[in-house]
Amino acid sequence: MPFSFTFNTKTTVRRVLENPYDHYHLATLHKLPTPTTSIQVTLLDELPPDSQSEPRTKNEARYGALVETKIERYLYFGPINALAKVLGLNTETFMTRIDTWPSGHFFTIYINGKEKVSMMQGITPVGENNTTEYVVLMIKKTGSFWQDLVSYAVFGLQNKAVGAQDIPVFNTLNDDKGGAYVKHDRPALKFREFYQSWVDKVEI
User: How many domains is the chain built from?
Assistant: First the structure.
């Protein structure tokens, strides 16, 4: 089941792209029902060779990670949450595989170990500190009308709502290079190194 949306942001491509690697904001901003301490991020290049599937792009043009956590209560919001409870759609584990290239991401989202949705995100610069974000999702059908309805709402409408929560943050970010960092910032900082390596290729 396809679903798509776009957002305009007042920041740089890099700032939008590094957002998924700031994994603590899933709990603090997006209210993912899990303690921040239970969210684990593993860079794809640091996984044992036999534990990951074939990369979707050549290695030098790819950066990626697995984001995994346990869910303490239902994953859904508002009336969607009520319908999910009636249908018994409890969520115990949540995992996202992120495959990144210098202008976008491909996300594969798993709930309770089963793939539920694939999502492609592309970022286009349209001016200084002005970008357009394009998102296309493919949501897996379950064979049940009501479960498909919940899946469409959760991974379509709710994903769009979650994305909208990031926009006010993007629009107030300062793209300076200062800051104090902690160990949990490592995935985002490693992404910045990857992104800058491609900026340097363009500037040569």
Answer: 1
Distance CA 126, CA 94 (A): 34
Number of residues that this document lists for the chain = 204
Instruction: Give the whole-number percent of the chain exceeding pLDDT 70.
Output: 76
Half-sphere exposure of residue 177: CA atoms within 13 angstroms, side-chain side: 3
Tell me the whole-structure pTM to 2 decimals: 0.83
Q: What is the CA 38 to chain-centroid distance, rounded?
A: 17
Task: Assign residue 176 the CATH number of its domain.
Answer: 3.90.380.10
Residue with tokens 């993007």: 170
The mean predicted confidence, pLDDT, of the chain is 80
pLDDT category at 36 given cuts 50, 70, 90 is: low
* DSSP SS3 for 87: helix
Instruction: Select, from the ranges 40-44, 136-140, 161-165, the one with the highest average predicted confidence (pLDDT).
Output: 136-140
Q: Are 135 and 157 in contact (CB under 8 A)?
A: no
d(CA 196, CA 83): 45
14 lies in which domain range?
2-203
Q: List own/partner pairs for 195-204 with CB under 8 A and 24 or more apart.
A: 195/14, 195/17, 195/18, 195/63, 195/102, 198/61, 198/102
pLDDT mean over 78-86: 58
